[in-house]
Amino acid sequence: xxxxxxxxxxxxxxxxxxxxxxxxxxxxxxxxxxxxxxxxxxxxxxxxxxxxxxxxxxxxxxxxxxxxxxxxxxxxxxxxxxxxxxxxxxxxxxxxxxxxxxxxxxxxxxxxxxxxxxxxxxxxxxxxxxxxxxxxxxxxxxxxxxxxxxxxxxxxxxxxxxxxxxxxxxxxxxxxxxxxxxxxxxxxxxxxxxxxxxxxxxxxxxxxxxxxxxxxxxxxxxxxxxxxxxxxxxxxxxxxxxxxxxxxxxxxxxxxxxxxxxxxxxxxxxxxxxxxxxxxxxxxxxxx
Length: 288
Ligand SMILES: Nc1ncnc2c1ncn2[C@@H]1O[C@H](COP(=O)(O)OP(=O)(O)OP(=O)(O)O)[C@@H](O)[C@H]1O
Ligand SMILES: [Mg+2]
Known about the structure:
Layout: E1 4-13, E2 21-31, E3 36-41, H1 47-54, E4 62-67, E5 70-71, H2 76-85, E6 86-89, H3 102-112, H4 117-130, H5 147-159, E7 165-169, H6 177-194, E8 197-201, H7 205-211, E9 214-219, E10 222-227, H8 229-233, H9 236-241, H10 248-258, H11 270-287
Parallel strand pairs: 3-8, 3-9, 6-7, 7-8
Antiparallel strand pairs: 1-2, 1-4, 4-5, 9-10
Helix pairs in contact: 3-4, 3-5, 4-5
Bound molecules: adenosine-5'-triphosphate and magnesium ion (MG).
C-alpha cells in the first residue's frame, strides 16, 4: 500500500470565469512510505496546486486523493485524519507565524489534535530541538527571529504533529547557502530518523539531487517525468525544453566528455563529482 495516492486529479482556478486556468490536468502518482520525493517544474506548472491537495487544503474537482487507501474526502473523519497525517509547510511559511510566542506557534497543530497539555509540551520541545533551536527560543516572539530561524519554527510547527508525510513547498527558497544546506540536512535526517515520507518542491536541481530518492517533473499541469534522480537528470535535453536545467556539476562533466575525456555522464552532486574525478585521475595516472 502507498501512503498517499493521487488518482487522475484535475483542478481549475477561477472556474466559469474568463480567467479560468487548468492548473492540474489529470495527475496520477503514488507516494511510498519512507521515500523522499523532489518535485520540480517551471513556474506555474502546478506544483503548489498539487501539494495543497495532498492534505486536503484544496478539494479536487475531479479525481481522488487516497491517504493510506482511504479517500480523504469520504467523511469528516477522513479529512481530519489526513490533515494531521500529512503535514504541509507552505512556500515562505514564516509569513504564517501568527502567535505571540514560538511555543504557541509550534503548539498550534498538537492543540488542534486534542492532545493533553503534557503531550503538547513534549511535542513542542521535541520539534523545536529537532530543528536545531534551543529552549530559550520558546518564549520569544516569532517576529524577533531571523529569516532562517522563522523558517525553522514554521517547520517545527508541522513536525510537532508527527505527520506520516511531510510536504514542503520550496523549503529552501530565499535562504543563504549555509542555511539552505542545514535545512536540507535536517529534512534528510527527519526522513531517516522517523521513517516519514517527505515530498518537497524545489527550483534548485542541485538540492533535489542531494536528498531525493525520486523526482517528479511537472509541466503545464501534467507529470511528464517520474523516476530516480539518475533517470530524470540524464534527460538533459528534454529538461532544457521544459525550462529546467541539470545541476552545474553534471554540466561540467558533460563538457569534459565533449572535450574527449572519458568521465561518466551520470554525476549529479558535487560530492559524487569529486569521487568520480579522483577515480578518473587515478586511472589516467595508472595508464600514463
Ligand atoms: N489562487 C489562484 N487563483 C488563480 N490562479 C491560480 C491561483 N494559484 C495558482 N494559479 C494558477 O494556476 C497555475 C498553477 O499554479 P501553481 O501555483 O500551482 O504553480 P507552481 O508550479 O507552484 O508555480 P511556482 O513555481 O511559481 O510556485 C498557474 O497558471 C497559476 O497562475
Ligand atoms: Mg508554487
